[in-house]
Amino acid sequence: MGVGMIPVEKARSLVLDQIQRMGTEKQDLLHSLGRVLAEPVVSGRDHPPWNSSAMDGYAVRHEDVSTASEKKPVRLDVVEEIAAGALPTKTVEKGQAGRIMTGAPVPKGADAVVRVEDTRTEGDSVQIVCPAERGENVRLRGEDIQAGLVVLAQNSVMGPAEVGMLASVGRSHVLVYQRPRVAILATGNELADFHEPLTPNKIMNSNGYALAAQVLEAGGVPVILGIARDNREDLQDRLTQARSSDLILISGGVSVGMYDFVKDVLEQLGILMAFWKVAMKPGEPLAFGSLQGKPIFGLPGNPVSTMVTFEQFVRPALRKMEGHTLLFRPVIEASLMERLTKKPGKTHFVRAVVKKTGDRYEVWTTGSQSSGVLTSMVKADGLLIFPSESDEMAKGQVVKVQLLGKSFLGQPDPGY
User: Which of 329, 334, 377, 414 could be stapled to 361 by a disulfide with Cβ–Cβ 3.0 to 4.6 Å?
Assistant: First the structure.
């Protein structure tokens, strides 16, 4: 391990130990999607609030239809029709039935519902051609939710089902943790943006937009501050603007080149740095610190290094700020389909393609692992973790792969 470098695990712990949850805010149902609940949600009533029909059909008394069959149908008088949203007005007596729609309350006296497919109508009466057990096709009051029940615990992540649950219990708004505002600043005289001419000495500021997309995907709110040129004054001015955000990302300028001023400027602003190098590839020149509790990351300038270090450190930090308890991407085991070698001392995150074959996963590299080859990230389903102490991974060896959220399983089996 090089001088001044710390292991990935230690760097990750130093980062997460300093990260605090955001404050809370009220959000309406749809805007709560993907957010983390900052309060438990308690139902104020039973759901369904009454015994209701699970089918379109007829509400009957079990004892009246227990012997019904096609050959010997049971004839019942229909005393009323109960639509969904209406309340029954009559009690079902012996020899009677109520025509009922799905979701409508079951009338008093009735204890079963016969499907309309198992009936024949005759004017104001109906013939029942099959028996019905007590409780058949009836959803009992409180079957789904009981009054006073905690239906969503604090720290639950809001998905479509959770949104539906909030609507079920009559909650139009809910308390969630805020989304962190993330200032994104790229550095370098060589960078150009869309409004600038792309001259032969310039490259596009892909890092700024890739980081903004990663922030959005992680649940944060990106604030793109543009490009800081390679002088202390411009960098200091833009970092001063960034201080109004909840987290700051700086891409480039954290190595030891003569124009890499980030370290000096951060120190001038009074920012306390926890580390400057991590024993990983890509992404060794990675800085992390804070100013009055506000996290600041200095990410490498190469596109792949920027994205990989975001995945390992910034994304978990953002998720913790947002209230998530599951901070990391899922890691699977897969069979390596090619031999890999490296020098020991650094953890390598190898861009990889994952495929499921039968009941196992297989993994290949995407090809060139240069930190400037952004196409390797475009191709990658995951990052193969090549441990720091290892120097070789043999073909056929079972390895760990951190998934990147892309779908690699192909089409589902039609027989599922």
Answer: 334
